[in-house]
């Protein structure tokens, strides 16, 4: 039996839903543990993308004629920082979308949210939830 869609659930009472999901007393139960990981929004310090001071230091070292090994090490450190910044940018969610697509997705998800909020308001007004509050 297929699971009912979100719109089909509006046709069922809470008793119908509970009865279809309840296991049979004769059924054997198996407990499974599911671990869910929540992803926190990627945050970063804007200084991670500030390369100008490092570039200025390298240019200054070249102009003053400092040790070329130190200059080479500074360039390698700059390249590593740029690679880290590039990796950080690649991990940002939604990067593949242009601004207009992101706005369209936001409007669509907001409409879904409002739809679910309206459903919740209607469900809360059902007699099963308002019975003892009068």
From TrEMBL:
InterPro entries: Med9
Protein name as it appears in the record: Mediator of RNA polymerase II transcription subunit 9
Top-level taxon in the UniProt lineage: Eukaryota
GO biological process, alphabetically ordered: regulation of transcription by RNA polymerase II
A Pfam family reported for this protein in Swiss-Prot or TrEMBL: Med9
Originating organism: Absidia glauca
Disordered, as annotated region: 21-45
GO MF: transcription coregulator activity
Biased segments, Low complexity type: 28-43
Subcellular location: Nucleus
SUBUNIT field: Component of the Mediator complex.
Gene label: ABSGL_14788.1 scaffold 14966
GO CC annotations, alphabetized: mediator complex
Biological role stated in the UniProt entry: Component of the Mediator complex, a coactivator involved in the regulated transcription of nearly all RNA polymerase II-dependent genes. Mediator functions as a bridge to convey information from gene-specific regulatory proteins to the basal RNA polymerase II transcription machinery. Mediator is recruited to promoters by direct interactions with regulatory proteins and serves as a scaffold for the assembly of a functional preinitiation complex with RNA polymerase II and the general transcription factors.
Family listed: Belongs to the Mediator complex subunit 9 family.
Entry keywords, A to Z: Activator, Nucleus, Transcription, Transcription regulation
